[in-house]
Amino acid sequence: MRLVFNFTEKREAVNITNNYGGTGAVLVANNTLGTKAAADFIPGDMQMRNTTIVGEEWKKEFEFVVNGKGVAADKMLRVRPLECILGTCTIAAIDTSVPLETTVRKWSVASSWTSGKVPVAGEHVVINATQNFELDIAETPMLGSLEINGRLSFKDDVSLPIVKLRAMKIFVRAGTLRIGAWNQTYSQTALIELGGGTASETLTLGGTIKAGNKVIASSGKIEFFGAQRTTMSRLLKTAVKGETQIQVDKTVDWKVGDQIYIAPSTVQMDYSEYRKIAAITDGLITLSSPLAYYHYGKTDSTASMYNGIDIRTEVFLLTRNIQVYGDPTDGWPMHMLATDLIEQDGTIREGSIIMDNVEVFNCSQKDKGNACLRFEGAVGSSKTWSSISRSTFHHGQDWGLSIYKSENIKLEKNVFVGWRAIGARLDLTKNTTVVGNFVGDVNGRNIAFLGMTIDKETCWAVGSYDNTKTGSKNTNLVFTDNIAAGCPFSGFIAPGYLACGEVNSKIFYNNVAHSVGGYGAYVYANPLSTTTSKCMEFSHFAAYKTVEACLVSFVPTQEQKAHHITCVDVQKGLSLNTGVGERESVKIILEDSQFFGEAESEDCPNPEACVCENKFTLMNAQNMND
After folding, report:
1. What CA–CA distance (Å, rounded) separates 186 from 192?
2. Segment holding 374, helix H or strand E
3. How far is CA 609 from CA 487, 515, 564, 612, in A?
4. Is residue 454 domain-resident?
5. Which of 82, 108, 129 is the last residue of a domain?
6. Is the pLDDT score of 452 beyond 50?
7. 432 in a domain, yes or no?
8. Which domain holds residue 518?
9. 272: helix, strand or coil
10. Gap between the Cα atoms of 166 and 329, Å rounded
11. Percent of the chain predicted with pLDDT > 70
12. Residue of 325, 323, 400 whose CA lies nearest to 369
């Protein structure tokens, strides 16, 4: 049997080894299909070539052999496509020792450019290390690429109300891309549009991090500071299907044309809605189209009714005056990446992204691992940090946020909505702070698995995606006051305390989940803990309107402690369990927690989507010696 695959990302070689690449594995020689008779083929014999499909010559084809010949190890193949043939890519160094020039070059002036010409469509543009450019035109043509090693700033002047940068890919390599400043936010409208489709040229980094295409990548500094906006209001009056108006707080600064997100408030996880504001007066919003679903509202907070939990519908403003997005005409979203880069001379570039009040949309690429916002290998140093605050990320084909093997990152009061499988993922991080963020409208991939296998689907995967058995280590993590809503399997999958009795633990504290198709939270033993087998503790969590338990745990320990848990109108109550091996004695301790039955918000907002199930308060299972 000969298998043929086509691929579009840059690859210099494909290595095939037997025995799954394990002990004693042998590398199969490259391009052997053209030199052997069919009778002599062994598993892994392969070749790479340009496709023979007319009109698609840009594609590469990779063909290899699978058969029943040879020993068992020959029938277990590891296929590894290499972006660069040596496994890592050689990137020529850039000399940044010369200071940035103090004079500002105007993008619109031909003499500003080394070529003597203003860049044109399709051109590969480089801003050199000493150059200090200002983008002073309404719109650039679609550039083939833009590499920034000096500085590029957007002009901020009432005479230029819109400044738009267009490119197939943007690489902030050793320089800075800046819009506004922390002490002088951008006052006009700044747009960055990424172009291209699935077959567009990819950005090559060091070979270990796959940048992909249609990307804005930083191994330098991205600094965006948009105008301050009111991020959220609660719904002050219940709105039902077919209505065209909703009432929010009259103090919001929202205006006609702004886009808003209306969260689900019932047990139905798929009741998220997006609308534009057609009119607004004293918080009374006329929507661009009628509501499709029920959304619970009330003039005053319900915190006094439900142990501090406000179950009124969240309404978020998505629009900002700095917007980064993928050109939608080709059906392929963009993504943002921060990573470190090692150059040929050993120079290490430390990537960072600082954004406040920025909107990013039509982002995250299906089945590529390219989240809308991605930190991967962004380790940096004590001098390098990233901060994302009061920004919105919405509408993508896959994940919203991924922080992987990265350090010194702070996320505060952001909104991530409109994703597939995973809303936000944190694995193998260090010095990460995640406070007051909202993740919602995450849809399952709807993949059918055999047996009891389930897909990895959640709004927040905190240390749980990379290693599903024990969880991955997130060192010095602060994760508090976040919300998950409209989630498939769970709102959160997160770790417990480092040790029982820990005081003021902020690893997973004061978070809330609601409108979840499964569990509010799945809490697992913290992999940084050395005492979990004896005792495991978690606390301060709330959930409402979940199909399964508001919180579930399944931990191999002798003693499990839970306290300050609030469950409101959930179907399966609280589920505390031990397991994985028998024990002589087991303790499960629940303290200072409150449970509420029916809430004011409806379970049957529409007759065709009625949920009338028996509801429970508490379930538990202790695995003891029979």
Report:
1. 14
2. strand 373-376
3. 17, 14, 32, 10
4. yes
5. 82
6. no
7. yes
8. 421-626
9. coil
10. 14
11. 90
12. 400
